[in-house]
Amino acid sequence: MPEDHDWEAYKVPPTRTPVSERTTSVPNPVNFLQAAFNYVLDTPVTFVREWIERWQGKNKFYYYHQKFRRVPDLSECLEGDYLCYYEAEAQWRRDRLVDQEIVEIVRERMAACKQREGPNQFQNCAKEMELLAQVTKAYQDRYGDLGYHGNARTCLMKQKHRMMEERKAAQ
Question: Keywords on this record (predicted)?
Fold first, then answer.
């Protein structure tokens, strides 16, 4: 890099930026519109948003860990208590979804064990196979043959008929 600089080509910037002087006494309409926008729209919206954020910061709501209280089973509802019927039906649907997820998790564990063990899967994954058999049998006993449109009442009747058959077989 050369030592001699061409000061005319590369001038040093001024130390202070000059302030432009106004040539008119009429106020700038852009400044007025910006101030009006700020006080009319931006300030209230910002205030409401900050207030909501402060309120939500105090009351944390985790929607993905929603817990429902257990409601009475359909067999415990009084005759004609339609609200109890509705709650029992909703509880049954939640229980069915939970049971489906349990079966799916056990099935995924079984598949992972088979993938991991390879040819030794029958001896090393026996515990997972037994657990999968138990879980699918329990699910099939409770929800099997109900179909997509099954509900709490048909499930209860299925369990009642199964218990009656077991009682007859025991005698």
Answer: Electron transport, Membrane, Mitochondrion, Mitochondrion inner membrane, Respiratory chain, Transport
